[in-house]
């Protein structure tokens, strides 16, 4: 093991070019295929989703009539939307679709596309992405009105250029933003997004929980040094409070650079979060740890217990539950 460093010593920078270079599936999905997806026979919608994705990939992209008319047959819509709970394999299917599609194509999280617009500007982003065979958007979550309008406009322009769209989320497209901002005030934008997608509902159990049960693993204070020393590769060591404070100084689009090259992180004195803004930043950080398959060693409160009940009862519930599932996997080594 190299000498432990601190997350606070890492100063990630990110250019538009670097964002574009990252618009590919995460490394654990670099070889994902429809054949390697293992549908749960207890949930027929999983097998149906595989067939629908295969059909979408091979469908003729030529379409007639108005691009976004609700009167068109669902199969003719330019986008497919994978809706379902966390851990049912939506990202695997999205990556498999990306691999199936020919030509120039992009795969990124919702936040990476909005960060790209921020780095390059709107018109250059459209110029870069337009004409791609497929634009894959993972973790499609609309948390504010500005993002709603931005993504609606961006998708309109990309579809007009002939690109097809595929997205995953834990929220059906006509419910995006619900419980987080005044959705009724932005119904037009939300409906416009929904009209672009054929929605595929995927039911099932969290596959991460098929292999283990219980809480996120913790390490006793007296065993921390030994756990850190046992890590083969790069590790950072920070108090939970220091890490949460530092995340506030780094734009979430840079989190993947923050964890680049790490094999593990250690967080000491973990406790329940009191601030929802901090909680949401930590969720975004967990997503990038999971994508990069970075293990977590933690002391204190189990990480699956850091989101209080009032947060879990709010509009971000599904985000917190997804993060909880991933935290259990990351602390248990199931990554």
From TrEMBL:
Gene Ontology process terms (BP) = cell division
Top-rank taxon of the source lineage equals Bacteria
Q: Which InterPro entries match?
A: ATPase_AFG1-like (IPR005654), P-loop_NTPase (IPR027417)
Q: Name one GO cellular component term.
A: cytoplasm
Family annotation (SUPFAM superfamilies): P-loop containing nucleoside triphosphate hydrolases (SSF52540)
Query: Which GO MF terms does the UniProt record name?
Result: ATP binding; ATP hydrolysis activity
Keywords, comma-separated and alphabetical:
ATP-binding, Cell cycle, Cell division, Nucleotide-binding
- Official protein name in the record: Cell division protein ZapE
């Amino acid at each position: 093991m190299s000498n432990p460093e601190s997350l606070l010593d890492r100063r990630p920078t990110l250019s538009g070019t670097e964002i574009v270079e990252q618009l590919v599936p995460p490394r654990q999905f670099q070889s994902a295929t429809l054949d390697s997806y293992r549908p749960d026979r207890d949930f027929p919608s999983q097998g149906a989703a595989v067939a629908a994705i295969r059909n979408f990939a091979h469908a003729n992209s030529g379409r007639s009539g108005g691009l976004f008319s609700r009167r068109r047959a669902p199969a003719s819509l330019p986008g497919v939307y994978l809706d379902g709970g966390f851990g049912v394999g939506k990202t695997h299917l999205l990556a498999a679709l990306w691999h199936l599609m020919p030509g120039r194509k992009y795969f990124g999280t919702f936040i990476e596309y909005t960060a790209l617009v921020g780095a390059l500007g709107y018109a250059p982003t459209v110029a870069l992405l337009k004409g791609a065979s497929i634009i894959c958007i993972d973790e499609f979550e609309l948390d504010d009105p500005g993002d709603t309008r931005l993504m609606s406009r961006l998708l309109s322009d990309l579809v007009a250029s002939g690109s097809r769209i595929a997205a995953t989320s834990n929220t059906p497209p006509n419910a995006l933003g619900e419980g987080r901002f005044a959705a009724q005030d932005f119904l037009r934008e939300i409906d416009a997004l929904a009209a672009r997608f054929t929605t595929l509902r995927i039911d099932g159990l969290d596959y991460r929980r098929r292999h283990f049960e219980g809480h996120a693993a913790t390490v006793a204070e007296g065993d921390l040094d030994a756990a850190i020393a046992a890590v083969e590769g790069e590790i950072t060591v920070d108090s939970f409070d220091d890490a949460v404070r530092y995340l506030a100084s780094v734009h979430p689009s840079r989190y993947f650079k923050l964890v680049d090259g790490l094999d593990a992180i250690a967080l000491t004195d973990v406790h329940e979060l009191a601030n929802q803004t901090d909680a949401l930043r930590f969720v975004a950080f967990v997503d990038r740890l999971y994508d990069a398959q970075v293990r977590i060693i933690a002391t204190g409160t189990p990480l699956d217990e850091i989101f209080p009940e009032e947060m879990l009862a709010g509009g971000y519930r599904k985000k917190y539950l997804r993060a909880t599932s991933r935290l259990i996997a990351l602390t248990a080594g199931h990554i």
